User: What shape does this take?
Amino acid sequence: MGLSNYQYLCLPNFALMRNKIIKITTAVLTVAAVIQANSTVAQNDVNTSGQLNTITTAVPFLMIAPDARAGGMGDVGVATSPDANNIHWNPSKLAFVDDDMALSLSYTPWLRALVPDINLAYLSFHKRLDKKNMQTIGASLLYFSLGDITFTDANGNVLRQGRPNEFALDVSYGRKLSDRISGGMALRFIYSDLTGGLNVQGTDTKPGTSVAGDVSIFYMNDDIRISKKDAVVTWGANISNIGAKIGYTETSEKDFIPINLRLGAGLKMHLDDYNTMALYFDVNKLMVPTPPEYQRDSLNNPLYDEDGDLLIASGRNPDVGVVSGMFGSFSDAPGGFSEELREFTLSTGL
Assistant: This one.
């Protein structure tokens, strides 16, 4: 069982997916929709005007828990006991796996009660490299299918059928730095095809691609006794999806992928020879720019400068590079420190 205040909008944020949910198969596709098609409601804040200030990124499927254990425990995973799904949560846990080799396959019928053909599949594998159990390599494939879509133009004329899909292919490496600490990294190729190359109002669309990496650390101490019971203490940290922005047209501005900082800790108690109980806790923070609060006139219309750019009333310009966006994400909320604190999301699992 678990609790999490993560809120994911893991469907493209435009009319055709909304209509699909309510069983309508036609929709309107525009260039603006393509640019913003793959956004996620990951962290919600209230800015200085009291308005909801949502941080969005592209390819939100990267943040979905792909395995049943983490999904059932409120999306905790960075400090849980090592298993075959380590790569998604914390590659450094690979160094502490018990098996010489393991394979895991997970399948999730996503939103099955609303839409019958959206699904998430995850395949992962790891193999030890030496007899001293110091190094382990792994690979995984995360595949997200958005089901069948009927693409239409602005007048409702059917253009063609499509089946948008996205996937991420990972390779990873974990190594023990001591008997209780390990480090790890992963390299990820991201592919997102939302339109199938459809031409929209004279603009060609394309699949979005990006390359990203993870850097992580993990600590595990199994030499502990609490109330005469054997116990295991763990903690971990992972900065995931450190990579280039992604775009769906040659002319559009590119969007951040969900670069995420995850910190966590856990305590597992061995109750007897057949039972254990563990409590885990994760803290997450998207390391991407927070949308600023823009200036508006008395009629609530946005104001622009002489270059045609929106004037910012509070916060910072979100059109920055990846590195600047990552480090600036801890101090760019228009609502100040209180809003920054609300950008940290918590997950617990038992």
Q: What stands out?
A: The chain is about 10% helix and 40% strand. Confidence is low (pLDDT under 50) at residues 1-42.
